[in-house]
Automatic annotation (TrEMBL):
InterPro entries per record: FAD-bd, FAD/NAD-bd_sf, Geranylgeranyl_reductase
Top EC category: oxidoreductase
Keyword Manganese: no
Name recorded for this polypeptide: NAD(P)/FAD-dependent oxidoreductase
Organism: Saccharothrix hoggarensis
Length: 347
């Protein structure tokens, strides 16, 4: 019997990889997913889905449970600026709930999720081999520290550095009723805290920082937040991720393509990671359906340009203390500009 040739093998069973697998399966392709981790996958994540991400999931037939998000609030000391989403509500969704909903839909479409760790790849004229499987195309969707990116020779020097800083993220959940339907972002000297409602009685607290340290230590930069959660029951363990900045020289090397964090990542500062992963996954599927993988790198750049520019600009400002102190005051003084920026992020 001839050895089976899949149309697509996806390495990585997170949201980006599952979105590609589901999109390909819905297009009639033979797909398999390699994911060495078993069960529902969790990850340090702000867990706020922008309205664009909610729409992208709906297009895939996925409606994960969560809490409505109607906008974003920036805080610094006594100052606060709020901007509502104009394009409909976003949603706060536990990462585990999102993964469970996406995996269920992938399995419903008959896509196997195999407990395989890919440690090598080899490209041939009309196929790629990886993890004992053979496919026309191999998709690296294996996260910030992508093995596939390295094996394909697509890792770019300077990974993890921007303006001389490294940044990390931490996240934990607490049994607290949300006090607002917005993502609350509090700015400190070298870090930001994100409070996201993810259910009627649960909030997620994520901290992004250029300082190393445990979750409790990082909370000291946010005394009001620390006081609010001090008596609440933690309902998850602390999850960490980083360094957040990861660079890829390209997104395509022959029959190997990268998506999600594996394709290159700037920072979680603007909260667009999941939305960008889903929209670029749709572009990748479109290129595979047309059998034009070389088009994907250009499509990725076009689709992610606005997000990358906004994130790079805000992160550049963040890295300069004299300017960073003025970010929240500027949003307070110019609410229409803040609203416009948030509207761009939410699309």
């Amino acid at each position: 019997m001839p050895e089976r040739l899949h149309d697509v093998v996806v390495v990585g069973g997170g949201p980006a990889g599952l979105a590609v697998a589901l999109g390909c399966a819905r297009a009639g392709m033979d797909v398999a997913v390699c994911e060495k981790r078993t069960g529902v996958i969790d990850k340090a994540c702000g867990e706020g889905l922008m309205p664009g991400a909610v729409r992208a999931l709906a297009a895939l037939g996925i409606d994960p449970p969560g809490h409505p998000i109607e906008g974003i609030t920036y805080r610094q000391g006594a100052m606060a600026a709020h901007a509502a989403f104009r394009a409909g509500p976003g949603r706060g969704v536990r990462r585990t709930a999102l993964h469970d909903a996406m995996r269920e839909e992938v399995l419903r479409h008959g896509v196997p999720v195999l407990p395989i760790a890919v440690t090598g790849i080899s490209q041939h004229g009309d196929h790629v081999r990886a993890g004992g499987l053979r496919a026309r195309y191999l998709i690296g969707a294996d996260g910030l520290h992508s093995v596939v990116r390295g094996l394909a020779g697509l890792t770019k020097d300077g990974t993890g550095r921007l303006a001389g800083t490294l940044r990390w993220g931490l996240r934990r959940h607490y049994a607290l009723a949300p006090v607002t339907n917005a993502v609350e972002v509090t700015w400190a000297a070298r870090s930001e805290a994100y409070v996201t409602p993810v259910g009627p009685d649960t909030v997620g607290v994520a901290i992004l920082s250029s300082m190393r340290g445990g979750f409790t230590e990082q909370l000291t930069a946010f005394p009001e937040l620390a006081s609010w959660i001090s008596g609440a029951e933690p309902v998850s363990t602390v999850r960490g991720a980083g360094p957040l900045r990861q660079r890829a020289s390209k997104r395509v090397a022959g029959r190997v393509l990268l998506v999600g964090d594996a394709a290159g990542y700037v920072d979680a500062l603007t909260g667009e990671g999941l939305a960008l992963a889903l929209t670029t996954a749709a572009e990748l599927v479109r290129c595979l359906r047309a059998d034009r993988p070389s088009d994907y790198d250009r499509a990725w750049k076009r689709t992610s340009r606005r997000s990358r520019w906004l994130t790079e600009t805000l992160l550049w400002t963040r890295g300069r203390p004299a300017l960073a102190r003025r970010i929240v005051p500027a949003t307070v003084r110019a609410p229409r500009l803040f609203s416009t920026i948030v509207d761009q992020l939410a699309r």
